[in-house]
Write a structure and sequence with these properties.
- The protein is an all-alpha fold.
- The protein has a single domain (3-315), classed as Farnesyl Diphosphate Synthase (Orthogonal Bundle), CATH 1.10.600.10.
- It is 76% helix and 1% strand.
- It has helices spanning 3-14, 16-29, 35-45, 52-63, 70-93, 104-108, 110-130, 134-157, 165-175, 177-190, 195-222, 225-228, 234-237, 243-251, 254-266, 272-281, 284-303, 310-321; strands spanning 97-98, 101-102.
- The chain has a two-stranded antiparallel ribbon.
- One of its GO terms (molecular function) is all-trans-octaprenyl-diphosphate synthase activity.
- Its cofactor is Mg(2+).
- It holds the Pfam family polyprenyl_synt.
Length: 327
């Protein structure tokens, strides 16, 4: 087991009792009079994963001494929103494998996946109302809207080999990091934290989420498909100009840049081994990991504003060990 997996497990163990309550809430709120809705939703949720977003909300609550029952409800809400984005993502990206098994769209078809994703979004908004807080509604509504904008931005950037680092970061901060940010901010809000602490929690979430996605993009060229549970080279097949490719084009020779650019523009994985070698040879992987390290350090600096306790220690460790992630 890797050091990063051990650290994640420590964080999960710390909130294990809370996560059982969250799982019970998820199971209860998946009930629907339409059998296919529950079947598709349970299929993707049962696939597992680290569930970092609800875990993040619970860890922040723990760090700030919050015992509100609403933490279970809102942790389930962020998991529903995340699951809805996965259902829609896999349809848009035409993905066939996630977390080591067939995607929901591969099993149930695209229409069912899109519509059940819509159900999860709408159910999440029903659950937000239970919190009885306009501020909670604002945070989650804004996050959901920004995530959707990020999805559209990514679609617009498909097969665009001219995308630069700023454009890449804009997409992942909207599409991935925003829900991490919202999860951490909600924990602070439930705890009644002052504005500075709430802002620090939001900064932690955004930086952690950004680092998480940057490392995910590294693993598309430096990971193990069996361990990761997805097909390596999927980003290239989808025409995504991720940071390893952007840097490889900048750092490589004219011929290397041409090969990478052509693969992004055509979505061809025929030259994937050669491109993976270019990404390594040019130092693009190291540069990308360094960019993730910068984001992880921002998360660590933000978490140091929280009270010193075992929950805060887990938040610090999650950020510091993220760079060892291999799946």
């Amino acid at each position: 087991m890797s050091a990063s997996s051990t650290t994640t497990n420590q964080a999960l163990n710390l909130v294990a009792a809370d996560m059982r309550e969250v799982d019970a809430t998820i199971a209860r709120r998946l009930d629907s009079g339409v059998p296919l809705v529950g079947e598709v939703a349970r299929y993707i949720i049962s696939a597992g994963g680290k569930r970092l977003r609800p875990v993040l909300l619970l860890l922040v609550c723990g760090a700030l001494g919050c015992r509100s029952e609403q933490r279970f409800n809102l942790a389930a809400v962020v998991e529903f929103i995340h699951t809805a984005t996965l259902l829609h993502d896999d349809v848009v990206d035409e993905s066939t494998l996630r977390r080591g098994r067939s995607t929901a769209n591969e099993v149930f078809g695209n229409p069912a996946s899109v519509l059940v994703g819509d159900f999860l979004y709408s159910r999440a908004f029903q659950m937000m109302v239970d919190a009885g807080s306009m501020r909670v509604m604002q945070i989650l509504a804004d996050a959901t809207n920004i995530i959707s904008e990020g999805e559209v931005l990514q679609l617009m950037n498909m097969h665009d080999a001219a995308l630069d680092e700023d454009g890449y970061l804009r997409v992942i901060r909207s599409k991935t990091a925003k829900l991490f940010e919202a999860s951490a901010r909600l924990g602070a809000l439930l705890a009644g934290a002052d504005p500075k602490v709430e802002a620090a929690c939001a900064e932690y979430g955004q930086s952690l989420g950004t680092a998480f996605q940057v490392i995910d993009d590294v693993l598309d060229y430096d990971g193990d498909a069996e361990v990761m549970g997805k097909n390596l080279g999927d980003d290239l097949r989808e025409g995504k100009a991720t940071l390893p490719l952007i840097l490889a084009m900048r750092l490589g020779s004219e011929e290397q840049a041409r090969l990478v650019r052509q693969a992004i523009e055509t979505g061809s994985t025929e030259d994937l081994p050669a491109i993976a070698e270019i990404v390594r040879q040019t130092g693009a992987l190291e540069r990308t990991r360094a960019a993730a390290a910068d984001q992880a350090q921002r998360a660590i600096d933000a978490a140091r504003m929280l009270p010193s306790n075992e929950y805060t220690d887990s938040l610090l460790e999650l950020a510091s060990q993220l760079l060892l992630r291999r799946s």
